[in-house]
Design brief:
With 424 residues, this protein is of the alpha/beta class. It has 2 domains: 235 residues, 3-Layer(aba) Sandwich (Rossmann fold), CATH 3.40.50; 167 residues, Four-carbon acid sugar kinase, nucleotide binding domain (Molybdenum Cofactor Biosythetic Enzyme, Chain A), CATH 3.40.980.20. The protein has 16 helices and 18 strands. Helix 13 packs across helix 14. The chain is globular. The relative contact order is 0.13.
Length: 424
């Protein structure tokens, strides 16, 4: 099937979040980790394809080059409409990659205007009069002001974007959006006549997103957070751009053993680990002990258990313990050791018949995916907002992976995940 919408995301968890929202439609969504080689996978491309890059904080030229490759692949897969996905808090460095990448894509597509819609009202990200809010706080007064890589010290999207692009930046504010699709389209035309190619769109509610999507669905390029993209599949179905028959089937759900691996120390993951440890065989990893005695005892523990038995292996610890491990081993070494061990265990578990994995931690998930050599994920049912089951082919076997970063999901997330797969 040819791709309808080609999406490019500037980081992995952002790509997963976007893919999950697109997949709420029931239509086929596939996620590529990095740009596939040449024509690899083009023949079985999904209606919605998401390419996950790691370009948020790389130098501008590098981000442009990576995105150009992703664009070229998506075009080969058949995409005629494109979505450039960045964070709902507009994370970018001062030089910024959001604007330059958008301008490159516009040039490739011959687009004369695009929108910037990071708003995600369901998650407390809204844009009003061009200013981005996190909950009730301005972006520049939220914890994002102290982000280690992309400190956001201004909340005005017009001011943030203007220095990143060559053409004029303008605003379609909430008063216009609230008037509806036609009013917004008229505003976009007025701005176009004034030479404004980059339009920030206000949105404070889900209804605003519906209006914006309806007014702009036919533009060759849209940019923003995952929430606005999530409105596109239904519109495409209504417009006949995509066939309902393209809906994915739930055949061939992976059967076989199960395992939870957790390398996340976020507050919600700590609760999830405590909950699930009471319901399954569980093993706690101590990075200091691992550094001393190696991974042997952990591997032996895993080998003693059957593939089918519910199991949890976690490095998840309270901040005090994490600090101690970091002091003893060094920050980098402690993290890498844990990631490496969990990734190796995933590999070993696969060899012994485990086919359903839940992995907690953004970086941890990246390490596991890499160790398993997975390049493509097909998006399945959503376990919790923003966290879907994903499916992959691995050495001719079908594998299910739930990749959860930081604070996503409720206390019973691990259990919910397996229940959902069994019920599907
Ligand atoms: P999150 O999505 O919650 O941020 P990540 O996997 O991205 O989780 O990051 C957690 C990091 O903490 C990983 O690099 C992991 O290896 C490291 N880590 C996990 N447990 C420990 C521990 N007990 N001591 C030190 N570092 C740890």
């Amino acid at each position: 099937m040819a791709t309808v919408l080609g999406c490019i995301a500037d980081d992995f968890t952002g790509a997963t979040d976007l893919a999950a929202l697109l997949a709420r439609s029931g239509l086929p969504v596939s996620l590529r980790i990095g740009v596939p080689a040449e024509t690899e996978g083009v023949a079985d491309a999904a209606a919605f394809e998401v390419v996950a890059l790691k370009s948020r904080t790389v130098p501008v030229d590098d981000a442009i080059a990576q995105t150009r490759q992703a664009y070229a692949w998506l075009k080969k897969a058949g995409a005629t409409r494109f979505f450039w996905k960045y964070c709902s808090t507009f994370d970018s460095t001062a030089e910024g990659n959001i604007g330059p990448v958008a301008e490159m894509l516009m040039a490739e597509l011959g687009a004369t205007q695009t929108i910037y819609c990071p708003a995600f009202p369901e998650n407390g990200r809204s844009v009003f009069m061009g200013h981005l809010f996190v909950g009730e706080q301005l972006l520049s007064e939220s914890p994002m002001r102290d982000h280690p890589l992309t400190p956001m010290r201004d909340s005005s999207l017009v001011r943030l974007l203007a220095p990143q692009v060559h053409k004029k930046v303008g605003l379609a504010n909430r008063l216009v959006v609230a008037e509806g699709t036609e009013a917004l389209q008229a505003r976009l035309e007025t701005l176009a006549a004034e030479g404004v190619m980059h339009v920030i769109t206000d949105a404070v509610s889900d209804q605003d997103l519906e209006t914006i999507a309806a007014a702009t669905a036919n533009l060759p390029l849209l940019t923003g957070g995952s929430a606005i993209a999530g409105k596109l599949p239904r519109l495409y179905l209504e417009q006949g751009v995509v066939e309902p028959s393209a809906a994915r089937s739930s055949d061939s759900l992976p059967k076989g053993g199960q395992l939870v691996l957790s390398g996340s120390c976020s507050a919600m993951t700590r609760k999830q680990v405590a909950y699930y440890a009471g319901k399954s065989a569980s093993l706690r990893l101590d990075p200091v002990a691992l550094a001393g005695e190696g991974v042997g005892p952990t591997e032996a523990w895993l080998q003693r258990r059957s593939a089918e038995e519910p199991k949890l292996i976690f490095a998840t610890a309270e901040p005090e313990e994490v600090r101690k491990a970091q002091e003893k081993l060094g920050f980098e070494k402690a993290s890498q050791l844990v990631e490496q061990v969990l990734a190796d265990l995933a590999r070993q578990a696969f060899q012994s018949g485990v086919r359903r994995f839940v992995v907690a931690g953004g970086e941890t998930s990246g390490a596991v995916i890499q160790a398993l050599g997975i390049k493509r994920l097909e998006i399945g049912p959503e376990i919790a907002p923003g966290v879907p089951w994903t499916f992959a082919e691995l050495e001719g076997e079908r594998v299910a992976l739930a990749l959860k970063s930081g604070n996503f999901g409720g206390e019973a997330f691990f259990e919910d995940a397996f229940k959902l797969l069994e019920a599907a």
